Amino acid sequence: MSAVAAAAAVMVPAPRPSVDDAGAVTVLPGLFVPEARQWLSTSSGRIAGEGYSWMQAVHWVAGSGLYQPRRHRSHGPRSFGPTTVRVAQELAALFPCRPGIEYLVRRTGLSERSVEYHLGMLRETGLLAYIVRGTRVRGESAQASEFARMIPPEFDVALGIRTVQRDAEAPAYTRAVSGIAEAGRELMAQLARTAARKVRKPRSKTSSKAPARGARKGAERGAATAVSGEARCTPMQVGTSTVSSAGTTSLPPESKLASGEAKSPTPKKSSGKAGGRRNLNAIGRRFQLARELVQELDWLRGCSVPRIAWVARNVADAGWTVTDVKGWLHLRGEAARVHRGSGLLAVLLAGAETILDTPAKRADAVEQWRGAQEAARRHRIQQVRARTERYEGDWDMPSRPTVRREVEAAFDQVRATAKGGRHQDQDGVADDQAAGQAPSKQELDALRARAAGELMRGETTLITSLDPQTALRVFGERLVRRAHQLESGFRSSLMTYGHR
Fold first, then answer.
1. Where are the alpha helices (DSSP H) in 125-262?
2. pTM assigned to the model
3. What share of the chain is helix, strand, coil (3-state, %, to 5)?
4. Neighbours of 264 (CB within 10 A)
């Protein structure tokens, strides 16, 4: 490309030069669009007619050097380079331009954070403008943002492009091209040839192919790679850069190749990986435990994983697993109602790593939790079996509690009559006779020992089958209170049994 076209990227003629000042030039300012003007309604650019003309503007921005990302942030890419152009190529093929982050990650091979960086760079240069901004709500599917491909006004000024607003009532971003200055035609033709070529992912530095050949192919593809200093390798300066990316690469001598001392170009796996997976550090273990807790505990569903990782940081650093946490929560007790899962977990885990400070103590807590789960499972089986035996057939129990109690009383009376029981008018006499035959102390001790053994196994049928007054008189306050604790634990939202 000629020197006039190369210099036109920064030193450009005015859009409509007169005869007297035909040689006058202007210097374009730095290219940056603040966040408030990254929307279609507030953008000062114009909508690109199609993806091809938009890619011309993309290559011009990549080669102009007017946009420096590190002037506005201390992290992220250092320049508007080939990777940003590759992301733009994927956007140019979409209609409407509504890419998802996962789609761009799959198409470009970049990370999610890198894709977000390059989309932000395209917005900051005025090449993209929001039409609808996407949303990410936990528990719902993510909505992708919809963009409008824009031509920044600096591009029109640089090439001397004239625009006209054909409809006075239409927005300013709908203006159309009506002409171009003579000095910008050569540069526009070069941008057209560059936009027709596809920029591909650069080869790895460890490739076994000759670097000179790779550099020549990169130049033919028009890769826009910005370098520090005044010399730049841009789409508008193909082959004119004084600095080559392969200039510092040299082949090993033949003596080393013959003796086998040269290093293999094939990258080796890192020693920090085991089985193809990265070994987690302390932060990774915290987040892994937090994800498992959110999945395993019903009352933590919907909680933020980073917040749970911070709450469980002490037990995670102590080497606890999700099973150990469940065992500890079983020992701590229950909560009838959970308003904020992360806050409740913070209270329950306070000091846990100091109490269960050895693997043996944690294993004992896990065994108790599993025993309670098994007891709850047997209790539910007995309840289902009792209901099935009591109400066999296709008949459904009434839903109203008062009607249900009347039906149960009727069933009890019919069952007692069928077994030769007493009628209602004989209940008082039978109760008086039964009261005169009180059990002995040995019988009460044996009955209480049997009830205590069943409570150790998680069974409460012997105590709960009696009315509260009789159970309290026969078994004592301690056994009855323990039976009520087990019964309430079966219905607790904190102590979850048999779900996993």
1. 153-159, 185-196, 211-221, 254-259
2. 0.40
3. 50, 5, 40
4. 9
